Structures are given as structure tokens and as C-alpha cells.
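sry for the spam today, last one i promise. C-alpha cells for design, 583 residues
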């Protein structure tokens, strides 16, 4: 019997609902099947996003600012919908069903997008000035395009919320060997999805420009279809975690309970506050955010039924001390969360205005013309190079010098923010040079006599920044959140990407309106050769610098939760678990 139990994985079941057998379920093979879904999702989403701005301007005949905002809104919505996907996975569907359903939704979106770019009725006629005037896409044509994009965004949101979590579910954290495998999977996860991005900005963008967008988007549909079939083939080998309810609901329960008891007095001793969490899972009470502690103070009417303590309490009226401390842990994350949003605002420029810059510049190598969207390959290359150098060089040196395996998550976030400031400063300086060339060449020059490779510094600096900030944020939110809120914390991290894109759209709109009054072109003209994009990049560098100072203050304020050692009860006395093991 004991031998059978040793095969079972704690808190995991197989596809039939029985305790998962570690010899038949989980491990690297099922995790790899899950990873394939994420690689194909990245291929589709980034392959569409990095080159969409050229399609909107060149084929749909939209102004540059409108095109940029459509791209950033699309990406922002994709990441914001991760919160919806996480809620559904935690509360109703589970991660497996969430991945399967939202993959099918994304396939529908890519099929519709391939169709809309193929049929001439769904795009305006090409304009060859001065023979024919340029007409912007009609409302119907834009409606079909929007429907396609936001189906893809919905699919992306559902997938991203569950893929990494379902991948780590395939490893047992209580088993030393599997825990090491899980750490390896987690550390390499970002590397593999960067490979998907690399394929998107090279192969897929080239197919879009040289063969046809409908062919490229059709490839996205086929690759996602193959990926979902491969994913479903592992059904019998996966380990599944049961849904335990949404952490978002738990947070609202604590907030509602504390608000309803805002006028009551605190008990003289913390021991009088309500606690029903088993000793190994208890979290130490802290004095920070004491207004939330009222949610754990027992008053009349908190228990459902006759008021007996054995009756479960109404969760909207009474929460345990541990549940309150979990909410406090989330609140502590918020200042760091808020100060990382600006990085993703600068990131948004790499797939919008930087691609528009590239489209005006000399992009030939011999007879080969580099697609404008493919310039982001330097961005992805910077991510991969930075990760490799950090893993193989910086971490070993840091361990010898400081005795630590690498930079802390907050230090990595700091590096990401600094590199983004330098990236925007470099972008502003080069754009100033590009504009001087554009003025000298005259308005009729389609391709400016300046090499596109001048854009490499801004791509490399922001790309290296992403390598640090992405891994740092993910580590910070995962390790700084309560055990039962890991999925939500991942959604919280991804929401910084979402808000960064939305802030970019907002900032572009504000700058366009403020600087473009009185019939002037403004900083963000419809044709960037007539604008002052260098000043816009300079503004982002200044805002990022101010944000970095605020971030540093937040890191000084931030104090991670320190848990008490697990305690067991022996004849009414609290005994440290490590002492118990010695006994």
C-alpha cells in the first residue's frame, strides 16, 4: 500500500480523476507538448503584430498614428485578456480545457485574418498616385479586420494565462528530481518562446511581404492546428490540478469584509482573530495594511447557520488571518507592478514607429530587400544573447563574487528599466539624424539614403532590457505572491504588458492632439518624415527616467512576507516542525 502511495503525486489527478501516477504521468514529455502550443502562439501573435503597422498604412491606407494605436491596442487587449483566461481556468474550466478552447478561438481568428487579406472586397483598392486617389478602408472592411484581430487576442489571452502553469503542473515540487526539472523548464520557457518570436519576425514576415499575407496567416492557422492536435495527444499523460476557485474572488471577499467592518475595534491580541488554515500553510500576521485585518475579526452573523464555530463562515463577512495576509502580499506587489508598466510602453515603439522608420530607409543587402518588420530580429537576438550571456557568464561570476546564483528579481527589473531609458535616448538621437536626411532628400524620396542598420542600437538596448525585466518580473510576481494565487500573479505580471501598450496608445493620442493643433503636422505626423518622432522618443526617455526614480523608492519600501516556520501541535504546545523531525 505504501509503495502505491509513493507513486501518487500530491494534489494532482490523471485524466480519469484518479490520483496521478508519477511513473505514467507528467515529466518532460507532456511539458514539451504544452510548450509547443506556446511556441506556435508566439509565432502567430508576434508574426502578426510586428508587421501589422505596414499593412494598415500601406494596404488599408491609415495614418501612421492610427496604425500604431491599432497595433498597441491589439497587443494590450491580448495581454489584458489573460486575467479573464486565468479566472476561467481557476474557477470553472481548469487549465487543460482553457488551453484547448482558446487555441480553437485563435485558429478561428487567424483563418478569418487570412481570408480578409486575401479577398479584394475586404480591403480598399491600391492607390497609384496621381492616377487614382487613396481611399482609407471602409467601416465594413475595418470591422472584419478588427473581428479577426480580437478573436486572436481572445485566444492569446486564454492561452497565456494557463500554458506556463499547466507546464509546471507536470512536475511534482515535493520530489527533488522533479523540482529540479521544473526549475529547468521554468528557466528555459522564455528562451523557447523567444525562438517562436524569432521565426515570426524572420520567416513569417518575409512570407508576408514577398509571397502574400494570406499565405503567412494561413501558415499560422495550420501551425496552431497541428499544435492543438499534438497537445490533445498527451491527454492521458498529463497531470491535472483541480480548480480551487478564483483568487480574484478571494481578494474581493477580504476587501468587502474589511470594508463592512470598518467601524469595529481591533481585538487586544492577534490570537483572537479568526484562523482556520492548517499549521503548515499558515502565514505570519503583519502590521502593515492593518485596515484589512478587520476582515478576520469575528462579529455576530459571520457564521452561516446558528452561529456555531463548527459552521463554515460566510467568506464575504469573515476571512482567516492567512487569507488576509495573502491579500496583503498582493497589495505589496502593486507599487513594483505600477512602475514596470512604462517599460512596455517603450517596448511598444519597437513594433510600431521603429518599423515605420525602417520602411523609409535603405534595406537592401545585395539584391535582397530586408522586410521592415524583420528588423525586430535584432530585438529578439538581443533577448537571446542577453539570456545566454547572463546564464553562462554573469551568473557564475556573480556566484563567485557575491555567493549568490545571480541578480535578484528586483535588480533584473532595475537593469531592464535602465536599458529602456538608454534605448529611447539612442532612438531619439538617431531619429534626429534620419529627419535631417529626409529634409535634405526632399518629399518625393521614397527610400532615404541612410542604412536601416542604424536602428540596431535601439533594438538591442530595449531587447536586452526585455530579457532582464521579463524574467525579473515573472520571478518577482511568482515568488512574491501567495501559493494559492500563482495563476493570478502571472496574470498580474502580464497586465503590465497590456497596460504598457494601452499607455502607448494614450500617449500617442495626447501628443498627436497637443502638438498637432492649428493645422500643424505635430510630432506624430501621418508621414513620419514630416513629424518630430525624435522628440516623442525623447519624451519617453524622460518619463522612463522619472519612473525609474519612483521604482527605486518603491524597492526601498517593499518588504517581502516572511513566514513563520511550520508548527505542529503536541499535547497543546507549539513545536517547530524541524524539531519534530529530530524527535
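last one done:
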Amino acid at each position: 500500500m505504501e509503495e502505491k502511495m509513493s507513486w501518487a503525486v500530491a494534489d494532482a489527478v490523471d485524466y480519469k480523476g484518479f490520483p496521478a501516477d508519477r511513473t505514467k504521468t507528467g515529466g518532460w514529455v507532456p511539458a514539451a507538448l504544452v510548450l509547443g502550443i506556446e511556441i506556435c502562439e508566439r509565432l502567430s501573435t508576434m508574426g502578426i503584430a510586428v508587421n501589422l503597422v505596414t499593412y494598415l498604412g500601406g494596404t488599408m491606407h491609415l495614418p501612421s498614428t492610427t496604425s500604431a494605436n491599432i497595433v498597441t491596442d491589439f497587443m494590450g487587449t491580448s495581454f489584458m485578456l489573460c486575467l479573464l483566461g486565468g479566472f476561467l481556468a481557476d474557477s470553472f474550466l481548469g487549465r487543460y480545457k482553457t488551453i484547448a478552447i482558446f487555441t480553437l478561438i485563435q485558429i478561428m481568428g487567424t483563418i478569418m485574418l487570412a481570408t480578409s487579406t486575401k479577398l479584394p472586397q475586404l480591403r480598399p483598392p491600391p492607390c497609384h498616385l496621381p492616377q487614382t486617389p487613396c481611399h482609407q478602408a471602409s467601416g465594413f472592411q475595418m470591422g472584419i479586420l478588427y473581428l479577426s484581430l480580437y478573436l486572436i487576442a481572445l485566444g492569446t489571452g486564454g492561452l497565456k494565462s494557463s500554458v506556463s502553469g499547466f507546464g509546471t503542473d507536470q512536475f511534482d515540487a515535493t520530489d527533488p528530481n522533479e523540482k529540479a526539472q521544473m526549475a529547468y523548464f521554468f528557466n528555459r520557457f522564455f528562451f523557447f518562446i523567444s525562438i517562436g518570436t524569432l521565426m515570426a519576425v524572420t520567416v513569417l514576415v518575409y512570407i508576408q511581404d514577398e509571397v502574400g499575407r494570406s499565405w503567412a496567416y494561413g501558415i499560422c492557422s495550420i501551425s496552431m492546428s497541428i499544435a492543438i492536435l499534438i497537445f490533445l495527444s498527451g491527454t492521458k499523460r498529463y497531470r491535472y490540478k483541480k480548480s480551487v476557485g478564483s483568487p480574484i474572488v478571494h481578494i474581493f471577499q477580504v476587501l468587502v469584509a474589511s470594508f463592512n467592518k470598518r467601524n469595529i475595534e481591533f481585538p487586544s491580541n492577534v490570537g483572537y482573530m479568526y484562523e482556520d488554515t492548517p499549521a503548515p500553510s499558515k502565514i505570519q500576521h503583519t502590521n502593515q495594511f492593518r485596515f484589512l485585518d478587520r476582515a478576520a475579526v469575528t462579529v455576530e452573523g459571520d457564521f452561516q447557520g446558528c452561529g456555531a464555530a463548527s459552521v463554515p463562515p460566510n467568506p464575504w463577512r469573515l476571512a482567516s488571518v492567512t487569507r488576509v495576509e495573502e491579500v496583503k502580499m498582493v497589495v505589496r506587489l502593486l507599487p513594483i507592478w505600477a512602475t514596470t508598466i512604462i517599460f512596455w510602453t517603450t517596448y511598444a515603439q519597437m513594433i510600431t514607429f521603429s518599423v515605420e522608420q525602417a520602411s523609409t530607409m535603405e534595406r537592401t543587402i545585395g539584391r535582397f530587400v530586408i522586410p521592415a518588420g524583420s528588423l525586430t530580429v535584432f530585438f529578439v537576438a538581443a533577448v537571446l544573447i542577453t539570456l545566454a550571456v547572463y546564464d553562462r557568464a554573469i551568473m557564475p561570476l556573480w556566484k563567485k563574487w557575491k555567493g549568490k546564483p545571480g541578480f535578484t528579481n528586483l535588480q533584473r527589473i532595475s537593469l531592464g528599466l535602465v536599458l529602456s531609458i538608454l534605448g529611447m535616448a539612442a532612438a531619439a538621437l538617431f531619429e534626429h539624424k534620419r529627419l535631417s536626411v529626409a529634409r535634405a532628400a526632399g518629399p518625393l524620396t521614397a527610400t532615404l539614403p541612410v542604412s536601416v542598420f542604424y536602428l540596431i542600437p535601439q533594438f538591442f538596448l530595449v531587447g536586452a532590457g526585455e530579457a532582464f525585466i521579463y524574467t525579473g518580473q515573472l520571478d518577482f510576481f511568482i515568488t512574491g505572491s501567495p501559493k494559492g494565487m500563482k495563476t493570478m500573479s502571472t496574470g498580474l505580471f502580464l497586465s503590465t504588458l497590456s497596460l504598457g501598450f494601452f499607455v502607448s496608445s494614450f500617449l500617442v493620442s495626447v501628443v498627436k492632439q497637443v502638438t498637432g493643433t492649428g493645422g500643424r503636422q505635430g510630432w506624430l505626423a501621418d508621414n513620419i518624415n514630416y513629424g518630430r518622432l525624435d522628440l516623442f522618443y525623447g519624451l519617453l526617455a524622460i518619463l522612463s527616467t522619472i519612473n525609474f526614480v519612483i521604482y527605486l523608492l518603491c524597492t526601498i519600501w517593499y518588504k517581502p512576507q516572511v513566514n513563520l516556520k511550520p508548527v505542529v501541535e503536541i499535547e497543546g504546545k507549539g513545536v517547530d516542525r524541524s524539531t519534530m523531525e529530530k524527535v
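Residues 247-329 form one domain. ok im logging off now
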